[in-house]
Amino acid sequence: MSLKSALKKLKGFVRSRSIHVTVVNTGGCNGCDIEILACYTYRYDLEQYGIYYHNNPRKSDVLIVTGPVTYQWRDKLVKLYHKVPEPKAVVAVGTCACSGGIFNQRGGRVCGPVREVIPVDAEVPGCPPRPEEIVSAVVDVLPALFRSWEFRRGGAREAQEA
Ligand code: SF4
Question: Carries keyword Iron-sulfur (predicted)?
Fold first, then answer.
């Protein structure tokens, strides 16, 4: 293994063990937010997996989005997304974030689901999803995503240069 490749691997390893998240509610009922907070209680303890609640987008790696994205939230969500530095990931939590939920119907005034406003890496459906489901999705997806980030980006860059 070359030095460059070894350093990439080390960087990915470290990055996958220190993930900071910002949670944003784009117009949901707060049910999903309560379940996300429960993930940080002693019972589920998401921090044991190296996933920390930070809530400063400029210092975060992940945006966890709840809610159906109301018209008022669309531009703010895009701005928040751009404030998160690369590499970054987005997780949509709850049926509202995944499909617009009960608000996504005539007269609902929403422009979700979230994936139609910003790129989404993982979705956790449920109204609201249980903390076990959120923890399981986040722990399955995020470390793997950040562990392979350098290689994925390196591969994309090499493909562009070819
Ligand atoms: S998915 Fe259900 S619990 Fe979550 S914000 Fe929407 S209505 Fe509320």
Answer: yes
